UniProtKB/TrEMBL annotation:
UniProt-listed SMART domains: DnaJ
UniProt organism field: Anopheles culicifacies
Regions of compositional bias (Basic and acidic residues) in chain numbering: 176-186, 194-209
Protein name: J domain-containing protein
Region called Disordered, residue ranges: 176-263
Bias type Polar residues, positions: 210-221
Domain J: from-to ranges: 49-119
């Protein structure tokens, strides 16, 4: 049993040494290789983790973070890669963003909280697996009992959590954009309603003045017509009176009486 444990430990140490050798080799990649690493297919997913971008462990001190940033930024800087200018610019921006995230104490703390949550979730997942195996009468352990696989499980969980954070950020951004769009549409509609109201009020004022002018014109015409009618009535009355007077003059004439003849 002890021999088996020693063999497992030796295997792990060999694997860990190999991993460190790979990390050491990657840390001195050429400019082109670093650019390709940062822009490889699926890199957007990995580049959400600033420690991954700068090839650092999450417990790296700030001084080491600064040092690694300087070395990587020089490698991928567009001025150093005139033949690969566009891709170099993209890679440089990715490194700069990662450094700004880790340089700031608040955002670096949030990244470390992601690692802590990843570890807690991984431990919970392992506990659930063991509980299930125990219930089934199996006591062979779980793959994550291997330190290397345990570390890998945490690594995968970290990537997943960063992806979840980014997805939520995008969802909030979309909602925020839709809300801004809705508010802007409401503002535009309100402005249009105000313009329509102003136009209606303007037309109403103009038409009211026209109506007042028309009424005044009508009133003036009515007064003139009334005056003309009164004049005509007076004239007619005078004419009738004159006729009556003439008639009276003629009707008041009495013819002489004829005297009877005497014989």
């Amino acid at each position: 049993m002890a021999q088996g444990h020693r063999n497992e430990e030796q295997t792990f140490n060999e694997f860990y040494t190999e991993v460190k050798e790979i990390e050491k080799r990657d840390s001195v990649l050429t400019s082109k290789q670093q650019i390709d690493r940062l822009l490889r297919p699926g890199a957007t997913y990995f580049n959400l983790n600033p420690f991954e971008v700068l090839q650092l462990d999450c417990d790296a001190p700030l001084e080491q973070i600064k040092k690694k940033y300087r070395s990587l930024s020089i490698l991928v800087h567009p001025d150093k890669n005139p033949d690969n200018l566009d891709r170099a610019q993209q890679a440089f921006e990715i490194i700069s963003k990662a450094y700004k995230t880790l340089e700031n104490e608040t955002t670096r703390k949030k990244c470390l909280e992601v690692y802590e949550e990843a570890k807690d979730r991984t431990d919970m997942m392992i506990a659930e697996k063991k509980k299930k195996l125990k219930k089934e009468g199996k006591f062979d352990g779980v793959p994550e009992d291997d330190p290397a696989k345990y570390k890998h499980a945490i690594y995968v969980m970290v990537m997943k959590l960063f992806a979840d954070i980014e997805r939520r950020r995008q969802q909030l951004e979309v909602r925020d954009m839709e809300e801004r769009k809705r508010k802007r549409e409401a503002e535009i509609e309100e402005e249009e309603q105000r313009d329509l109201q102003k136009e209606w009020q303007k037309n109403f004022e103009e038409s009211r003045q026209n109506r007042v002018n028309s009424w005044h014109t009508f009133q003036a015409g009515s007064s003139s017509a009334s005056s003309s009618s009164s004049s005509s009535t007076a004239t007619a009355a005078t004419t009738v009176k004159s006729k009556k007077s003439k008639k009276a003059k003629y009707t008041s004439f009495n013819p002489p009486k004829i005297k009877p003849e005497t014989r």
